[in-house]
């Protein structure tokens, strides 16, 4: 348990990381380092996108599964790592 | 009326004469009428007779006098239907005969009364048109009810009067009309005009009541799901797993206690599953974040090939990649490095201290190339680690040798930070620091075992039996050569101090041991007291001894006496000697070429040699650490990727990529290499190249 906390803390304090969000299976954010409205927005949108991506991957081959999803934009990069029950979203500015 | 009768019978003349005859007729008529009156009797009565007698003949003055003969003359009159006003002598011109001819037949019709009425004949056009207008609704009904014709014909026939007549007339339309009278628009009902009475009665209408009941609606929940191929697959997998579990339960019924224990475990899991399940995901994310931060390094690692190597004839460079450091290991120096054979990006770092005075704790740390900021595993130890080895077949077993003489085995799969096995003073631990451990192949009973060498002069084999370490002394290193008498006649210590060893790659029982005195002994597992061979290798302690991975006869040794020597084990003198100008910490053969090896020195440099290219010089000499004071302590080649990791005495591990020149594979086979080496046989030892610093 403590290890996970530590890992999350390390991620949050890593260079260039703007924010981290932990989202549960229903799309409700559990933990966040951003403000509420941004968190809710990110969580909702990315949850849908991740579900869609996962569905796509598994439709092609049901034995396969989505490991992670990276969305690189001009300003920063959004990384989503889905799990059976939780989903972790990290927004990082890679160029810093 | 009697008057007229008479005139019918008797008159023959025309109508003009009729008026004359009237009084005569009246006379006779009187007589006749008398009789008639008498016959009738009742109607006229007596008064009629008196009236008749009382009447006298009054002659008008201008009446025509006729003789009696003329009076008796009978005139016949014929009553015809001829129109008296109709002309009887219509004449027409006939062109055929060119004369006028009388028309024989003349129209005798006399219209007495003319009245325009409002009745139309049923079949006339106007009537039909009217019927059409009115009859459209009727006719529709008739079309519908035509099918009922047959049914209704019989009751209709029983019906009265005109309706039956209509049916008998036949024809669809008529039948339909009669049906019409019943079903559709009612024709006026023909009633008896005299004694028809219509009576109607109404039954009692029950008052209407409305009653309803409503049940409580069943609980409803909206449900939505998608049925994708993978969802179906998931369900099937779950089913299979359940079935397998059931099978296992059916087989292992008597194990109730275990189940209870398992239940407890599962309970604990569900309570604390809040964030532990995020662990795996968090790890992935951490690696991704690191990859982003060190993106250029990752790209270099994968793709960068130094193009300038083409211009440098034979030399190569080392490109620094990641640098691994752990905060808690700052004061410690890297004392051991080992790559994992199965997971090519995982390597183990043993941390401790070489300094005799600064002995304290140690650490076993595992890093992955995917995450350079934080170790994958780390185990703090009470004593400094001096050596480690990862089992080649079981990548989760790690053997570790400590400064305090213990050996331990860690199982990476287990969560706890203590080793799975640890030797203790009872179980034959070394009395001096353990300098090298090496896993061996599983013994006959499929137990894992490893060897260790220590300064107390023993080479010990440890076997993992169930939960214990069982040790077996393989060989005791005894001092060979001159024995100097200690003070007071105390027999000098006969044990040599082993500082390194290595097992032959192909010949399992053959191994080399380097000692503190600078000798290298070739030993066999079979012989516990005797060495097969002894080489006078160095002037100082032999820090590392390594067999060549391809060539079965060649091995290399390095020492703090600044030299690196290459040997052929059949020859007692070294084949090559390299002077590196500083204490050599470690040396390693490359896994891709039999002629390439690298050495690290205390002045922070890495020397890479390729005997196939240049037998006398290093093809790369490069300082890899910033501060010159840091000593490099260990070096290891990655078995797959063209990188090396170098550990220094500040606790840092640096990874470097070999440039293409350093990675050239030998173009010749082994035979040529033999020739290469065998050619040197013929050189007397004096011709060996001793390289002086320049």
Automatic annotation (TrEMBL), chain A:
It comes from the Eukaryota. Gene3D superfamilies: Dynein light chain 2a, cytoplasmic. Pfam families: Robl_LC7 (PF03259). GO terms for biological process: microtubule-based movement. GO terms for cellular component: cytoplasm; cytoplasmic dynein complex; microtubule. Residues 4-92 form the Roadblock/LAMTOR2 domain. It is found in: Cytoplasm, Cytoskeleton. Its main location: cytoplasm. Keywords: Cytoplasm, Cytoskeleton, Dynein, Microtubule, Motor protein, Transport. SUPFAM superfamilies: Roadblock/LC7 domain (SSF103196). The keyword Iron-sulfur does not apply. The keyword Plastid does not apply. GO terms for molecular function: dynein intermediate chain binding. InterPro entries: DYNLRB1/2, Roadblock/LAMTOR2_dom. Acts as one of several non-catalytic accessory components of the cytoplasmic dynein 1 complex that are thought to be involved in linking dynein to cargos and to adapter proteins that regulate dynein function. Cytoplasmic dynein 1 acts as a motor for the intracellular retrograde motility of vesicles and organelles along microtubules. Belongs to the GAMAD family. This is Dynein light chain roadblock.
From TrEMBL, chain B:
Residues 39-49, 163-172 have a biased composition (Acidic residues). Belongs to the dynein intermediate chain family. Gene3D superfamilies: YVTN repeat-like/Quinoprotein amine dehydrogenase (2.130.10.10). GO terms for molecular function: dynein heavy chain binding; dynein light chain binding. SMART domains: WD40. Part of the dynein complex of respiratory cilia. This is Dynein axonemal intermediate chain 1. Keywords: Cell projection, Cytoplasm, Cytoskeleton, Dynein, Microtubule, Motor protein, Repeat, WD repeat. Pfam families: WD40. It comes from Esox lucius (Northern pike). WD repeats lie at residues 535-568.
């Amino acid at each position: 348990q403590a290890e996970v906390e530590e890992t999350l803390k390390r991620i949050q304090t890593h260079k260039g990381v703007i924010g981290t969000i932990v989202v549960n299976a229903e799309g409700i954010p559990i933990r966040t380092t951003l403000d509420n409205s941004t968190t809710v927005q990110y969580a909702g949108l990315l949850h849908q996108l991740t579900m869609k991506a996962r569905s796509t991957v598994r439709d092609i081959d049901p034995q396969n599964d989505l490991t992670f999803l990276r969305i690189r934009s001009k300003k920063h990069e959004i990384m989503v790592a889905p799990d059976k029950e939780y989903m972790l979203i990290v927004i990082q500015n890679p160029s810093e | 009326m009697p008057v007229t009768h008479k005139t019918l019978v008797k008159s023959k003349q025309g109508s003009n004469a009729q008026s004359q005859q009237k009084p005569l007729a009246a006379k006779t008529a009187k007589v006749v009428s008398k009789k008639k009156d008498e016959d009738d009797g009742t109607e006229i009565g007596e008064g009629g007779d008196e009236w008749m007698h009382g009447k006298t003949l009054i002659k008008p003055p201008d009446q025509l006098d006729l003789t009696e003969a003329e009076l008796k003359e009978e005139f016949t009159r014929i009553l015809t239907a001829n129109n008296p006003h109709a002309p009887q002598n219509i004449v027409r011109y006939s062109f055929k005969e060119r004369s006028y001819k009388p028309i024989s037949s003349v129209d005798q019709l006399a219209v007495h009364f003319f009245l325009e009425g409002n009745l139309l004949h049923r079949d006339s056009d106007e009537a039909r048109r009217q019927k059409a207008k009115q009859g459209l609704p009727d006719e529709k009904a008739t079309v519908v009810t035509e099918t009922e014709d047959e049914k209704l014909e019989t009751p209709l026939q029983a019906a009265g009067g005109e309706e039956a007549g209509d049916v008998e007339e036949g024809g669809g339309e008529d039948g339909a009309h009669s049906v019409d009278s019943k079903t559709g628009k009612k024709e006026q009902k023909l009633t008896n005009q005299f004694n028809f009475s219509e009576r109607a009665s109404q039954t009692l209408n029950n008052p209407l009541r409305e009653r309803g009941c409503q049940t409580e609606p069943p609980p409803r929940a909206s449900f939505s799901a998608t049925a994708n191929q993978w969802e179906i697959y998931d369900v099937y997998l779950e089913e299979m797993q359940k079935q397998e579990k059931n099978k296992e339960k059916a087989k292992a019924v008597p194990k109730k206690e275990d189940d209870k224990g398992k239940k407890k475990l599962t309970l604990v899991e569900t309570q604390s599953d809040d964030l532990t399940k995020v662990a795996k995901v968090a790890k992935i994310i951490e690696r991704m974040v690191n990859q982003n931060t060190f993106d250029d390094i990752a790209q270099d690692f994968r793709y960068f090939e130094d193009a300038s190597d083409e211009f440098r004839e034979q030399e190569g460079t080392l490109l620094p990649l990641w640098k691994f450091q752990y905060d808690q290991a700052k004061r410690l120096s890297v004392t051991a490095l080992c790559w994992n054979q199965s997971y090519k990006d995982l390597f183990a770092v043993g941390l401790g201290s070489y300094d005799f005075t600064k002995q304290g704790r140690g650490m076993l740390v595992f890093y992955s190339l995917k995450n350079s900021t934080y170790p994958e595993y780390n185990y703090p130890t009470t004593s400094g680690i001096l050596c480690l080895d990862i089992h080649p077949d079981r990548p989760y077993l790690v053997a570790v040798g400590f400064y305090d003489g213990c050996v331990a085995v860690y199982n990476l799969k287990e969560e706890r930070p203590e080793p799975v096995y640890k030797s203790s003073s009872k179980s034959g631990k070394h009395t001096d620091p353990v300098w090298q451990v090496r896993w061996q192949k599983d013994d006959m009973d499929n137990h894992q075992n490893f060897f260790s060498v220590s300064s107390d002069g023993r080479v010990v084999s440890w076997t993992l039996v169930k939960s214990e370490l069982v040790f077996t002394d393989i060989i005791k290193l005894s001092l060979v050569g001159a024995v100097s008498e200690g003070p007071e006649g105390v027999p000098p210590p006969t044990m040599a101090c082993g500082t390194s060893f290595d097992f032959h790659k192909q010949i399992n029982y053959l191994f080399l041991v380097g000692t503190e005195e600078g000798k290298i002994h070739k030993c066999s597992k079979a012989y516990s007291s005797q060495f097969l061979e002894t080489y006078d290798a160095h002037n100082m302690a032999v820090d590392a001894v390594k067999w060549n991975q391809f060539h079965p006869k060649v091995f290399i040794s390095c020492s703090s006496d600044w030299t690196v020597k290459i040997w052929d084990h059949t020859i007692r003198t070294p084949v090559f000697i390299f002077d590196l100008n500083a204490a050599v910490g470690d040396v390693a053969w490359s896994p891709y070429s039999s002629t390439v090896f690298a050495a690290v020195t205390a002045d922070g440099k890495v020397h890479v040699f390729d005997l196939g290219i240049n037998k006398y010089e290093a093809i790369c000499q490069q300082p890899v650490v910033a501060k010159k004071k840091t000593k490099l302590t260990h070096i290891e080649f990655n078995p797959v990727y063209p990188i090396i990791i170098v550990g220094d005495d500040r606790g840092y591990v640096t990874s470097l990529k070999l440039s293409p020149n350093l990675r050239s594979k030998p173009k010749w086979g082994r035979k040529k290499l033999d020739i290469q080496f065998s050619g040197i046989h013929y050189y007397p030892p004096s011709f060996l190249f001793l390289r002086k610093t320049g």
